[in-house]
Each structure stands twice: as structure tokens, then as C-alpha cells.
Amino acid sequence: MIFGVVAETRRGERRVALVPSAVKTLIEKGHSVLIEEGAGIRSGFDDAAYSSAGARVASRSEVISAAESVLRVGVPMPEEISEMRKGQTFVGYVYPKRHPELLTSIASRGLNAFAMDAMPRSTRAQSMDVLSSQNNLAGYKAVIVGANALNKIFPLMMTAGGTVRPTRVLIYGAGVAGLQAIATARRLGAIVEVSDIRPETKEEVQSLGAKFISVEGLESVNVQGGYVAAVTDEVLAKQKEAVEKSLFSADLVITTALVAGGRAPRLITAEQVWKMKRGSVIVDLATEAGGNCELSQSDQTVEVNGVTIIGCDNLAATVPAHASELYAKNMVTFLNHAAKIEGFAFDMADEITSATLVVHNGEVRV
Ligand code: NAD
Questions:
Q1: Between 282 and which of 181, 188, 253, 365 could a Cys-Cys bridge form, CB atoms 3.0 to 4.6 Å apart?
Q2: Burial of 362 (0-12, 13-18, 19+ CB in 10 A)
Q3: Which segments of the chain have a pLDDT < 50?
Q4: Nearest-angstrom CA–CA distance, 237 and 343
């Protein structure tokens, strides 16, 4: 097949869909790869590295007109959909439930689209799971961003001049990002507390040396295809009560909570922010899905009553070298699974194809 990689156009998006080693793997399988000039530069990969790996470096319009399939990272902008032609297949992030209008526009152009973010949460698909590979990096970076914004250090320090108490970190959500945030904060010497509504996360949290905040009466929650279904307001109220003491004594709060498809749960209210310690910091990783804190804003830092609230839509893009390497690995594993030399198999009996193919032959499938 002829795969085309275009440069990312969204503000702040520094990743690239394929790195040179991934290009090499596809070429060894018998495919061809075209890459837009400069597409990898912000991830640290120059055009010469892609040429050496066997790709042809070309202009954007050449890449799009020659490729059978266009590979990318970020959700495409409307004008990027109109650049493509009927029958072409787009592979990248789509977030179909958040962007129904995008699906309609892809379908009306007669394109096919695979959403890498719709990968099933199964053992078989784990090596193609971009949410895991990218959220893992985001969880790490959230701690670094928070530490940088804090007015104190993380570890306990006993010096001749006195003792410095360790920083207290509270993390909402112990999924992929949350677990990595716990591990990172612990490595830096913080005291870490964690809240998640999936009781099974308790053991994982404790094994990383953090304290799990249990919510009474919350024995099990509904999980749909690896994602927690939205829980009732009653459950959220109980959780709010159980976590409040930790919230008001925390120096750094990192929120990573997401539920299936829809809007991120509102876990920290404006009223609570006003009761937090002055100088404390909230890093909200859920702003792209609406935010876990009522006052956080998409990709912006705001200060309220001495509390700094940092909204992070896309932290993985701030570590683009590793993020692109992992994304490209997921992408190549997926392409090897879903495509043959002559084209995509579109085998609907295959769980991975069926879950990720969100538009096929002009028809929206979600
Ligand atoms: P996610 O990004 O959908 O959500 C992040 C976390 O937020 C989850 O742990 C969720 O329970 C939590 N959350 C939701 N509502 C909350 C609330 N009100 N308060 C606090 N926390 C709340 O989750 P994820 O990181 O993608 O992973 C979820 C699970 O799926 C993990 O156990 C992970 O190991 C598993 N997983 C499996 C695979 C696979 O097998 N291929 C791949 C990825 C993830």
C-alpha cells in the first residue's frame, strides 16, 4: 500500500504519525511511504532520516494525492478533510463520540476512517493502543508540569537548617495516566493519595506506595469495553465527601478521570478550589473532554485565590520524540493487522477493525 504521512497542523501538536524506524518496518513489509517535508522535525526526526529509512519526502499536496491511506496523529481540521479524495482511508485520532460533525463530513467525502482512539481494551489490541501509550507519557509529564509550578520541592529533606516536609500529591483517576503519575510523584519523594471509583485500582495504587481513598458503599462500577460508565450523582457526592480532606491538604492535585465516551466527570468544584491551600496547583489532564475541575480551561493556566489551575489538553505532544515513537509503533502494529499489500481488508468480523473503523464507504458506523 502507499501510506502518506502529513505534518500535524493543530496548535501545539508536535508529534508525527510515523518515525523513521516505523517507516522502515512498513517498507520491509512491501509498502511505500511518502512523508510531507518537515513533518517529523518537531519530534526530532529530519527529512534525511526518513529518506534513509526508505520514505519519499514530498510536498503536502503530493503526499495527499498519491497516498491510498493518510496517517496522522491529531483529529483532522475540517479543511484537511476536504483535501482528501473519495476512497482514501484516514488513520489517526478521531474521538468519534466527541466529534459527530467530523464523522459526517468524512462520510460525505466518501472517505474511510480508522479511529486509533477507539481501539478495544483487549490484550490482543494492547500493542496498538494509542490511548495507553500516550496517556502513560501524559501522566509522567503532568507531575513534572505540576512540580515546576509549585512553590516547594517534593521530597522530605533533613538539613542542618531544618526539616522540609514532603509535598502532598492527590491524584484523581488511577488509569494509565494516573498510575504513571503516582509512580513519578513517588520517585520524586511526594506523599501520594489517590481516588478512583473502580475499587480494583486500590491494589495497584497501594503497590506503587500511594494511599487509596476508599469510598464507602462503592463496591463496583459498570465498566464498558474497558471504560468506566458515567456514575450517578449520588456516587460522585460520596466520593467528593471522602476526598475533600485530602484535597484541602494537597499541594499538587492531578486529575485524569474519564468515563466512557462522554464528558469528563466534574470532580473539583469552584467552591472547593476556594478552600484549597494557597500556593497549591491543580493539573487537569481531562480538559479536552471538558475538565475534571470546574475552573480549569482548555490548555490555559488560571489562578484563583492563590491556586494555580493548569489545563492540559495534550501533554503527550510536549514529549514528542518518545510520544511519536510509541504512537508510530502502535500505528505500524495496527496497519500490519488491518492492511494487506493490496489494501485494507475491512474485515468486519475482526474485533479490532470493527471497533476502529468509524466511517466506511461514506457510512458512519458509530
Ligand atoms: P480512562 O482514561 O478511561 O480513565 C482514567 C481513570 O479515571 C480510570 O481509572 C477511571 O476509573 C477513572 N475515573 C472515572 N471516573 C472517576 C471518578 N469519578 N473519580 C475518580 N476516578 C474516576 O482509563 P484508562 O487509563 O484508559 O484505563 C482504564 C483501565 O483500562 C485501566 O485498568 C487500564 O489498565 C485498562 N486498560 C486496558 C487495556 C488493554 O487491555 N488493552 C488498555 C488500556 C487500558
A1: 253
A2: middle
A3: none
A4: 51
Q: How far is the CA of 333 from the centre of ligand 1 (A)?
A: 22
69 catalytically annotated: no
Per-residue confidence (pLDDT) for residue 226, from 0 to 100: 67
183 is written with which cell numbers? 509512580
Question: pLDDT tens-digit profile of 206-230?
Answer: 999 999 999 876 766 777 666 777 7
Do residues 288 and 298 touch, judged by C-beta distance below 8 A? yes
Report the C-alpha gap between 95 and 116 in whole angstroms.
9
Determine the length of the chain: 366
Residue 359: CB within 6 Å of ligand 1?
no
SS3 sequence of 318-337:
HCHHHHHHHHHHHHHHHHHH
Where on the phi/psi map is residue 261: left (φ > 0), alpha (ψ -120 to 50), or beta?
A: left
- Domains annotated for the chain, with CATH where assigned, are 2-118+319-364 (3.40.50.720), 138-316 (3.40.50.720)
